[in-house]
Specification:
Elements: H1 27-63, E1 80-81, E2 87-89, E3 92-107, E4 112-128, E5 134-137, E6 142-145, E7 150-151, H2 155-160, E8 166-169, E9 174-183, E10 189-194, E11 216-219
Antiparallel strand pairs: 1-3, 2-3, 3-4, 4-9, 5-8, 6-7, 6-10, 10-11
Length: 222
């Protein structure tokens, strides 16, 4: 009986489904490296596009820093919605969202505090427009009445309402906080003076980081 040709195998009663060429390579196996190469090319192209997009996004951030994000929460009872444009101090921008005055009590989870005059609560969206971390110190913020007198936040009310003394804001991140003040009863609030960080910019040394004396002033309506 003649011997099978070199490079092929036969099994009695079965169809020969595996064959090798003269070099000993199996066609099905030679296709697998090609599929792997194609997959690597597709993944590499996708990574390249993401890198380009990220670079463009960073450049866009350098050319035009955002001025604040809209708050999604609903207006609270007795709150006066604020429409003033965002102001900037250092690497942070501030946009007041709502002002509530005339409150005589501040209720917390473990305390009930009575105002010496009246409590005013100012909601503010604070955004870090830089490429690195910066800190916001809530105790530096001020409300200003119609006579020009400035008021610091109430330490006790801020504690009762679990608002932070300071907060670190990540690059391009924004937070919304409540600032609580105890101001004279019957006083009319006209503005806020808001203070950001004193850090250099993380982008480069020539970026404008304004720091108005006494804080960036933003008008408020009651």
């Amino acid at each position: 009986m003649p011997e099978p040709a070199s490079g092929s195998r036969t099994v009695p009663g079965k169809v020969d489904t595996v064959s090798e060429d003269a070099s000993g390579a199996t066609p099905g196996r030679t296709r697998e490296p090609r599929r792997v190469r194609r997959l690597l090319l597709v993944v590499g192209a996708a990574v390249g596009l993401l890198a380009v997009g990220g670079g463009l996004g960073f450049l866009g951030g350098r050319l035009s820093a955002p001025v604040g994000r809209s708050a999604d929460r609903a207006v609270r009872p007795e709150e006066k919605v604020q429409h003033a444009a965002a102001v900037r101090y250092g690497n942070l921008t501030f946009r007041p969202t709502g002002l509530t005055c005339g409150m005589h009590w501040a209720f917390g989870t473990h305390a009930e505090l009575e105002a010496k005059g009246q409590y005013c609560r100012l909601g503010v969206v604070v955004e870090n427009v830089d490429s690195t971390f910066h800190d916001l110190v809530t105790g530096k913020q001020r409300l200003v009445d119609s006579a020009g007198k400035a008021y610091a936040p109430s330490f006790d009310a801020m504690r009762a309402k679990r608002q932070p003394d300071s907060i670190t804001i990540g690059a391009r991140d924004a937070v919304e906080i409540d600032l609580w003040f105890d101001v004279p009863a019957g006083g009319r609030i006209d503005a806020a003076r808001l203070v950001g960080d004193d850090d250099p910019s993380g982008i480069d040394d020539v970026v404008n980081t304004p720091r108005p004396s006494g804080g960036a002033r933003v008008p408020l309506t009651m």
